[in-house]
């Protein structure tokens, strides 16, 4: 009887193929640069003139104390509630702590419905801010951040709302906020949401 002999090279190829298949079966994202989780913005809220939470922002360019008459410039603050979810809703090996998301920064850009979107002329300049928060899979986390800077209220077009020569008393812009971060395995994630802001000198 003849003995069937398989060349060592063929055995090595077969072993490598089997190992690759096993890895793919265990984790379909093993060789994918995308994160195993996603960042979701559940809500984005600002404040009205009374300081109550709202789905919009009334941004006062120059605050005037009703008692003393003293004026001040304040940044506008927004609050986002976020969560993280696994891309695979039923992972074979369960939920990994490496799927939690670490926020790093955020970016705010402004646009207007009338198409006048030149920064420093029609809308405030875009900017970035640092942000540190950990969003765990399945949990909800709130983060507060500056959405309109004090310096923006001392620059065009916001400071123009204080000039007696202008006929424009207010205008509305859309602030698009994008949050950037990475899961705990180092893979990048991001998510965006928008909110309407009406700029005016409400105390005038």
In a few lines, what is going on in this structure?
By secondary structure, the chain is mainly β.
Tell me what you see in this structure:
The protein is mainly beta and 204 residues long. 9% of the residues lie in helices and 44% in strands. The strands form 3 sheets. The chain has a 5-stranded mixed β-sheet with strand order 3-11-10-7-8, with no helix packed on it. Strands 2-1-6-9 form a 4-stranded antiparallel β-sheet, with no helix packed on it. A two-stranded antiparallel ribbon has the order 4-5.
Give the total of domains: 1
CATH fold-level name = Immunoglobulin-like
CATH class bucket: Mainly Beta
Please state the second-level CATH architecture. Sandwich
- Return the average pLDDT rounded to an integer: 84
Helix-strand pattern: HEEEEEEEEEEE
Shape: elongated
Number of helical regions? 1
Q: What structural class do helix, strand and pairing data support?
A: mainly beta
Strand proportion = 35-45%
Secondary structure topology:
Blueprint: H1 8-26, E1 37-47, E2 53-54, E3 56-60, E4 63-64, E5 71-72, E6 76-86, E7 101-111, E8 127-135, E9 140-148, E10 170-183, E11 188-200
Keywords:
four-stranded antiparallel β-sheet, disordered N terminus, 11 strands, 44% strand, mainly beta, Immunoglobulin-like, 204 residues
């Amino acid at each position: 009887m003849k003995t069937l002999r398989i060349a060592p090279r063929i055995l090595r190829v077969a072993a490598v193929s089997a190992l690759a298949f096993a890895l793919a079966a265990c984790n379909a994202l093993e060789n994918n640069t995308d994160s195993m989780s996603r960042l979701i913005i559940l809500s984005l809220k600002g404040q009205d003139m009374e300081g109550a939470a709202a789905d919009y922002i009334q941004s006062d360019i120059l605050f005037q104390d009703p008692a003393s008459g003293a004026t001040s410039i304040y940044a506008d603050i927004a609050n986002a509630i976020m969560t993280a979810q696994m891309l695979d809703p039923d992972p074979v090996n369960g939920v990994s702590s490496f799927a939690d998301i670490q926020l790093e920064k955020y970016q705010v850009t402004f646009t207007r419905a009338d198409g006048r979107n030149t920064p420093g002329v029609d809308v405030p300049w875009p900017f970035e801010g640092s942000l540190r928060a950990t969003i765990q899979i399945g949990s909800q986390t709130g983060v507060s951040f500056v959405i309109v800077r004090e310096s923006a209220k001392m620059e065009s077009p916001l400071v123009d709302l204080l000039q007696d020569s202008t006929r424009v008393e207010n205008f509305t812009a859309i602030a698009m906020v994008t949050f950037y971060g990475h899961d705990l395995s180092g893979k990048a994630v991001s998510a965006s949401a928008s909110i309407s802001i009406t700029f005016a000198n409400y105390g005038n």
